Amino acid sequence: xxxxxxxxxxxxxxxxxxxxxxxxxxxxxxxxxxxxxxxxxxxxxxxxxxxxxxxxxxxxxxxxxxxxxxxxxxxxxxxxxxxxxxxxxxxxxxxxxxxxxxxxxxxxxxxxxxxxxxxxxxxxxxxxxxxxxxxxxxxxxxxxxxxxxxxxxxxxxxxxxxxxxxxxxxxxxxxxxxxxxxxxxxxxxxxxxxxxxxxxxxxxxxxxxxxxxxxxxxxxxxxxxxxxxxxxxxxxxxxxxxxxxxxxxxxxxxxxxxxxxxxxxxxxxxxxxxxxxxxxxxxxxxxxxxxxxxxxxxxxxxxxxxxxxxxxxxxxxxxxxxxxxxxxxxxxxxxxxxxxxxxxxxxxxxxxxxxxxxxxxxxxxxxxxxxxxxxxxxxxxxxxxxxxxxxxxxxxxxxxxxxxxxxxxxxxxx
Length: 414
Prior knowledge:
This protein has 414 residues and is α/β, with parallel strands linked by helices. It has helices at 8-21, 30-36, 40-47, 61-79, 91-103, 119-127, 150-153, 188-197, 210-223, 236-253, 268-276, 289-296, 329-340, 342-349, 367-375, 385-388, 398-411, and strands at residues 51-57, 82-88, 114-117, 154-155, 158-159, 165-171, 173-177, 282-285, 304-307, 313-321, 357-358, 392-393.
């Protein structure tokens, strides 16, 4: 079992979940009720001249530029709203911040106006009644969202119920340098064999890093023989059975990992740097567009290619969420509506900007936006989303994620 793995983030997250489960529901404040009664024009006027504090993962310069320069520029130009982008490494830390504010009685003057969030942390926010809900129909661009799609209406199995707004759709993929590894393994069993045959050439970030946790879930699904037995609510007996197989697999390959598994990268950014330096043969990401951006930036060679697995990779939707105690809710709603717009979704879909897959129905956008999407050329280093989608795996419900991360920390990373 590897050393040098810091358990504190997982401990904080577990503590937050325990506290959240004992929380009592909060009713809307008078200001919240008044906001929901406004027309959209009234909301934008109320937001004018304000600031919105957007807490989001800050590990990619391209995404940061898109948010600060493009979105921040439009927000200022069209609505006189100042965007304060606050970079974070783990949204769980922000969930704990909001929980701490609630415990301290900070009910309408919180630090956070908007979070870029994943399903596990959305579950915690819902359990603790920490999310502002019941407003998404006020956003004009909500009409572009297909809420009849279960993959949009549910976040890691948790119903969205008007408590967050979709931003991107993603699917996990691997990257390799085709000049050095021309024939990468194409399914999980072959990858595990490759790791043992090529000592020191593979590793993964230690959970609770979001992407490292996703890799572990792929092994968990492989150990289960597929996702079918894992869908639906958490099953302790099934978890125990599959977890024993999973930890055995991960402990078996550990001596063959980078630095013999004595330590793990702590973030996906660190793994990407190791890949760029030739320390490992593979990296991976929920957002394959990042591979093309790294090539265009000169960080990775132009021989980098990406691939999925024939037995599938996990796909999901990510969202933005307004906390219950945001002091600038009107500005946050204006920002969410802007992020949903066809124009903003097209801009971030451009391969030279980000290459992110949209969370809206393109056919519902204006003709010029549809033409813009049709004109986007795929990057040679990025596997097309349509190709990945042929073998897409569903996300497990959040209870499974919490148990898998805790089990990994105890039985593999300890």
